[in-house]
C-alpha cells in the first residue's frame, strides 16, 4: 500500500530531467525567426514551394481525370474523340503547361542574351584591336627622326592630308 501511495504522490511531481528536456526543445532561435519574419528570399522560397505544389496538384488532377475519362468512355468512340479534344484543351490551359511554356521561353531569352553578349564582346575586342594598330602606326610615323634628330615631316604631312580628306 505504501508503494501505491508513493506512486500517487510522485505522479503530480515533475523530475528535473523532464524540465531540462522541455527547456532544450523549446529554445528560441532568434536567427531563424528573423529570417522567416524579415527575409524576402525566405518568403519567395515559400511562395515558390507553394506554387510548385499547386501546379503538381493540378497536373495530377488532370491525369486522374484523363484516366477516368478514358476508362469511362472507351465504349463510345464518338465520345472519346470529343473528350480527347476537351482534355487536350485543358492540358494546354493548365498551370503546369503554362509554367513549362514560361520556362522554355525564359531559357530561350537567356540563350539569346548570352549570344548577344558574346557578339558584343567580340565586336568590342575587334574595335579595340583596330584602334591599337592605328595608334601604333601613328606612333611609328610621328617618332621617325632624321640623322640629326629632327622629326621627319613627310609622315606628319601625310597624316594631316588624310585627316583633311576624311573631314571633306
TrEMBL record:
It comes from the Eukaryota. One of its GO terms (cellular component) is nucleus. Residues 73-87 have a biased composition (Low complexity). Residues 1-32, 64-110 are annotated as: Disordered. InterPro entries: Fyv7/TAP26. It holds the Pfam family rRNA_processing. PANTHER family: THYROID TRANSCRIPTION FACTOR 1-ASSOCIATED PROTEIN 26. This is rRNA-processing protein FYV7. It comes from Atta cephalotes (Leafcutter ant). The lineage of its organism: Eukaryota, Metazoa, Ecdysozoa, Arthropoda, Hexapoda. The gene is 105625087.
Amino acid at each position: 500500500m505504501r508503494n501505491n501511495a508513493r506512486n500517487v504522490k510522485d505522479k503530480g511531481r515533475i523530475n528535473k530531467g523532464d524540465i531540462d528536456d522541455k527547456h532544450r526543445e523549446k529554445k528560441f532561435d532568434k536567427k531563424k525567426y528573423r529570417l522567416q519574419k524579415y527575409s524576402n528570399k525566405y518568403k519567395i522560397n515559400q511562395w515558390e514551394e507553394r506554387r510548385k505544389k499547386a501546379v503538381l496538384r493540378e497536373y495530377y488532377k488532370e491525369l486522374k481525370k484523363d484516366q477516368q475519362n478514358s476508362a469511362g468512355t472507351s465504349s463510345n468512340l464518338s465520345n472519346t474523340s470529343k473528350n480527347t479534344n476537351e482534355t487536350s484543351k485543358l492540358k494546354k490551359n493548365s498551370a503546369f503547361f503554362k509554367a513549362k511554356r514560361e520556362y522554355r521561353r525564359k531559357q530561350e531569352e537567356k540563350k539569346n542574351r548570352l549570344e548577344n553578349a558574346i557578339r558584343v564582346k567580340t565586336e568590342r575586342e575587334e574595335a579595340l584591336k583596330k584602334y591599337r594598330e592605328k595608334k601604333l602606326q601613328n606612333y611609328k610615323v610621328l617618332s621617325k627622326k632624321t640623322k640629326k634628330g629632327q622629326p621627319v615631316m613627310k609622315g606628319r604631312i601625310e597624316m594631316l592630308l588624310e585627316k583633311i580628306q576624311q573631314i571633306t
